[in-house]
Every structure is written in structure tokens, then in C-alpha cells.
Design brief:
This protein is of the alpha+beta class and 251 residues long. The protein is 29% helix and 26% strand. The chain is globular.
Length: 251
């Protein structure tokens, strides 16, 4: 670790105790500090001690239930605002740039990115922006290392099987506009989105998605801290990944 990381970790330990970052330290050991599930082998970091559960019950974590319920309650207005933006302000959408690839048939409209809310989107998707800010950002449930965006797959678009970078955040999908013929597979189990409802899964497991429908499929994706991580771990992980990205010249 760099001196900056060591100083930050020491300050966290001073507040939360000497053992508060033990799992983060184990993660940084050669080999990742713990065995991983075969379908997590493509992930870069696995924080040991987190339940190796690909699919999560959206209402199975008290910390995250208010986020799920708020987005589901707001779905009708969110869908209406998204449809208006897609019809009238298509220029605010862009090709989605995953860390592995960029796809023209996968469009994105960002609400949270680079550690903060995307203020320009407040006028385009005001209800989703308000719910995200009140229930995920202000409550520190959102993982600031990642993002929140409307994810629109065009007809016949396919997202190839892949693992995301780590297991210490999980992905919430609010099904905004779902035509027939759309599905998502996580760790070999395929499910369909139900419009107006949320799915919650650990995207360190291999996953893929497809739109075999006749019109675009849109979900609102929110990256949330894994509920089994602790406050000191979240602080340390934010310092760690931010510094790694800085050293790599990626922000």
C-alpha cells in the first residue's frame, strides 16, 4: 500500500478498533485472502466473509429495504419521465462504457457518477434523481466508487457473460420499461424483470443479459454497498480503490 493508504487505514483503526479492517487486509493478501466461488473467478477483488450469494431478496436486508420500496413506489412517474427523455432528449443518452467494453446498443443516462450526483440529470429524470439522493446517496447506501444510471438495451442487444470488479457492492435493478423477450442470468440462474419491481444481485458472479424483444428494455441500475460490509470497511475500501485508480491514471 502507499503511505497515503496506510495513513488512512491507521486513522480508521484509531476510531473503529485494531481489528476493524481485518477482512480488507486479508483481501489484499496474495491470492485474495480466501477461496472464491468458481463463477467469481473473473472478479478482481473478493472481500472475504461476505455471503457468496448471487441473487439477493430485494427486501431481505433491512438496510436496503427503504431504497427498494422508494424506487418501486415511484416507478410509474420514473417510467413516464424516462419515456419523455428518450423521445425528446435522446442526446443526453450515451453508449455505455463498461470497464471491459463499449456498446452502441447499450445506452446509458447517468444520475450518479465519479463519486457524486450528476446534477444535469435532475431536470431530465427528476423523480429518480430525488429518490436516489434521498434514499441512497444521503443515507450513504450508494457505493461512491461506482454509479447509478438508466440502462437501456436496444432490441437484439446482448451483454456478454462477465464478472464485475468486486463483491463488496451489489447491484439493484428497478425494472422501468420491460418488453417481452428480456432476461438476465446470474451464476447460471436466469430470471426476467417484472416491470415496477426490483432485482438485487451480486455482480461479482458471472452474469449476462439480453433483449430479444421488439423495443428497448430499460432498468435503473444502482450500485449499493453490500449490506454485510461495515462502516470502517466501506471507508477503507473507498480510500483503497480511489488511490488505485489515481495511480493507474483513471481519475
Amino acid at each position: 500500500m502507499t503511505p497515503e493508504m496506510e495513513d488512512a487505514f491507521a486513522a480508521i483503526r484509531d476510531v473503529h478498533g485494531t481489528d476493524s479492517l481485518r477482512r480488507v487486509e486479508r483481501m489484499l493478501e496474495p491470492g485474495g485472502g480466501a477461496p472464491r466461488h468458481p463463477l467469481q473467478k473473473g472478479a478482481r477483488w473478493i472481500l472475504p466473509g461476505l455471503s457468496p450469494t448471487p441473487w439477493h431478496d430485494p427486501r431481505g436486508h433491512p438496510e436496503l429495504t427503504p431504497v427498494v420500496e422508494a424506487f418501486e413506489a415511484a416507478h410509474p412517474v420514473i417510467k413516464e419521465e424516462l419515456a419523455a427523455a428518450w423521445a425528446e432528449r435522446r442526446e443526453v443518452f450515451s453508449d455505455y462504457e463498461h470497464y471491459l467494453t463499449r456498446q452502441e446498443d447499450w445506452q446509458a443516462l447517468y444520475l450518479y457518477r465519479g463519486g457524486g450526483l450528476v446534477e444535469e440529470t435532475a431536470d431530465t429524470a427528476p423523480t429518480a434523481y430525488k429518490v436516489l439522493k434521498e434514499f441512497a446517496v444521503d443515507t450513504e447506501k450508494v457505493c461512491p466508487l461506482l454509479e447509478c444510471h438508466f440502462s437501456t438495451l436496444l432490441p437484439d442487444a446482448v451483454i456478454a457473460p462477465h464478472c464485475d470488479l468486486w463483491n463488496f457492492s451489489i447491484n439493484l435493478h428497478l425494472a422501468v420499461d420491460i418488453p417481452d423477450g428480456c432476461s438476465i442470468t446470474v451464476a447460471g440462474e436466469t430470471r426476467s424483470w417484472v416491470e415496477g419491481k426490483c432485482l438485487l444481485f451480486d455482480y461479482s458472479f458471472e452474469h449476462e443479459a439480453r433483449n430479444h424483444g421488439v423495443r428497448p428494455r430499460t432498468c435503473l441500475l444502482v450500485d449499493l454497498w453490500h449490506p454485510e460490509t461495515t462502516v470502517p470497511e466501506r471507508r477503507a475500501l473507498t480510500v483503497l480503490i480511489t488511490e488505485i485508480r489515481r495511480l493507474m491514471g483513471d481519475g
